[in-house]
Specification:
By secondary structure, the protein is mainly β. It is 13% helix and 37% strand. It contains one helix and nine strands, in the order αβββββββββ.
């Protein structure tokens, strides 16, 4: 506890009980509002045309969270795949070290209980080679979105 010498005629100010209660109430309300804020769901879809038995999605643009947000990707499904076709899901770049999982005609990509986490500077890249499918491949997915500083809320 801090000590202050008191000199005759000096003053010390402290909070009254009502002022202290007011500040504690404000802090408590703010805490619970922050705990409730920001958790949302998202959905996406993208398509690309198979060319030379290969496809890369998204065909244009980026598939990931906006600046300042993070995603927990829960599911990605593909439509119009051939029976033996496989799509690979990557984070940022299609390299083996960034592989998150695969999608087949009968099986969606599920990233587990916490999902595949993407921060605001990260994107999904989905590729397939030696495909038997022709025409457009469509993928869609869903998950949870939070402000990036609140990522702990979905972990």
């Amino acid at each position: 506890m801090a000590r202050f010498p008191l000199v005759h005629g000096s003053h010390i100010e402290t909070l009254t009980q009502d002022e202290l209660k007011h500040h504690l109430d404000q802090q408590t309300v703010g805490y619970f509002q922050e705990m409730a804020r920001g958790l949302s769901t998202f959905r996406f879809d993208s398509f690309a045309t198979v060319a030379g038995a290969s496809v890369t999605l998204p065909a244009s643009g980026a598939l990931g969270p906006e600046l300042g947000f993070a995603w927990s990707v829960q599911r990605i499904t593909a439509d119009n795949l051939g029976a033996a076709d496989v799509l690979h899901v990557y984070r940022n770049v299609a390299t083996p070290g960034n592989l998150l999982g695969t999608i087949t005609a009968g099986q969606s990509f599920h990233a587990g209980s916490k999902g595949a986490i993407l921060r605001s500077d990260e994107r999904l890249v989905i590729t397939g080679t030696a495909l038997t499918a022709t025409g457009d491949i469509t993928v869609n997915g869903e998950g949870l979105e939070v402000p990036e500083l609140s990522l702990y809320k979905i972990l």
